[in-house]
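Q: What would this chain look like folded?
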Amino acid sequence: MLSYNTQKKLLIFSFLAIPLALLITFSFYPAVKLIYYSFTSWDGLSNNYPWVGLSNYKSIFTNPGLFGAFGHNFSYLVCGIIQNIIALYFAIILNSKIKAKNFFRSVLFTPYILNAVAIVFIFKFIYLDTGALNLLLQHMGLGSLQQDWIGNDSIVNWSLAFVSMWEYFGFNMVIYLAALQSVPQEMYEAAKIDGANKWKTLIYITIPNIKGIIQINLLLTISGALEAFNIPFIMTNASPPTATFLTNTMNVAFTFGNYGLASAMAVVLLVLVGVVIFIQQKLLGGGRDVV
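A: My prediction, written as structure tokens:
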């Protein structure tokens, strides 16, 4: 007869065995192989893995067409931060007592549940020279603001980043809305009795109580900006003026067949995301309880 402690350990191991096996098989092992491939010039097909050392990493940081593509990610980062501010604003409004708030919540959340490819194609037609956006500007008497939204290299990345901003706005709004509903209403009532205005209530009650959620959304926003892929790939076929670091990684692997260099780029992206997460945790308090 097995002792209680032995049975307990066996039960715990039984529950953990399959998840750990899956984690090792589909996460840890591929990560180790990825790092190994990054030091080779593997073509993705042969069984030969010519060792090139740090040559791939040197190519990344010395080739402006590779590492310099992060400059195109900047527009996604800026629009993502603006998106969070607007999403929080609408979440606060829809958390108050207004008529038809459930209807407005559904409408604002709709873009997120649409197919991502369909959204990009919709905006591709909107951004045409004779598309809805230019026609709208013309009818509003703002014809001077008409642009070649995709063909103009100086604004194309902002145009693409706006698509991402519109697509994910509803998701962030719902997350903020759920966080706001968890804040005790007694705090707001006490603040109102003490004479606090809406601005002070926002600064001293709302934001401190949802700080953890703000950190999570900012983390998702920053990592998403660094990993932008589907919008430039579908909208412009990742042309040089719009190519992000991730689209370049995919092109290096599947177009040029240099899986070694692509693996090194993936490792660089992984490290960069990790550094950004670390910096964010240090600056914003690392997700500690703030209530």
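The chain is about 70% helix and 0% strand.
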